[in-house]
């Protein structure tokens, strides 16, 4: 009866595992019998890692059953850890820029004509016109750093969040205040608001009417 030859990596793993646990020849023969199933289910890397994990763990006398079960459990644990990590990586999106590389921050406005930014970032109460004035700066995350590098390659300098924050240390406070003013304005109008609006509208004479 002809059989598929056992892949070399499996034989190497049997040798590795037997050596790690000082197993005898008979044990190695048994492990070779697991081969056709193990080769289908596991990779060389998974089995080597599983063996290394089991070293030092107490094993009973019924080694055939215990090793087999422990190996299968170790690979299952490896796979679930890998899956959890993959899921975590997928959801660890930069909260500042949402992986765009840019953050929108309050624009301080121009102090003396175009090009020279106001040296101080003012609160909305002192600068109502600046309420929705924003500017994009490069984020300090990995995507942001790639954006900066890409722009530099094209000979362009872009402002980074780090430099901006250094220049306007109160920007978070200003941004939060702006946000709350804008949110407050977006609230549902009350009955009094409608009354006031009607009063204003009735005072306007429409041209041509
Ligand atoms: Zn970012």
Give the gist of this structure:
The chain is mainly alpha-helical and 209 residues long. It is 56% helix and 5% strand.
Heterogens: zinc ion
Could you give the count of β-strands?
2
Main sheet characteristics: 2 strands, antiparallel
> What structural category arises from helix and sheet content?
mainly alpha
Question: Shape, please?
Answer: elongated
Fraction in helix: 55-70%
Distance between the termini: 103 Å
Mean pLDDT: 87
Number of spatially distinct domains: 2
Highlighted features:
209 residues, mainly alpha, 2 domains, binds zinc ion
Task: Walk me through the structure.
By secondary structure, the chain is mostly helical. It folds into two domains: 8-91, no CATH class; 102-202, no CATH class. It is built from eight helices and two strands. The longest helix has 29 residues, at 63-91. The mean pLDDT is 87. The structure holds zinc ion (ZN). The site of zinc ion has 7 residues, from α5.
How does the SSE layout of this entry go?
Layout: H1 8-20, H2 25-41, H3 44-54, H4 63-91, E1 102-106, E2 134-138, H5 142-153, H6 161-167, H7 171-185, H8 191-202
Antiparallel strand pairs: 1-2
Helix pairs in contact: 1-2, 1-3, 3-4
This protein binds zinc ion.
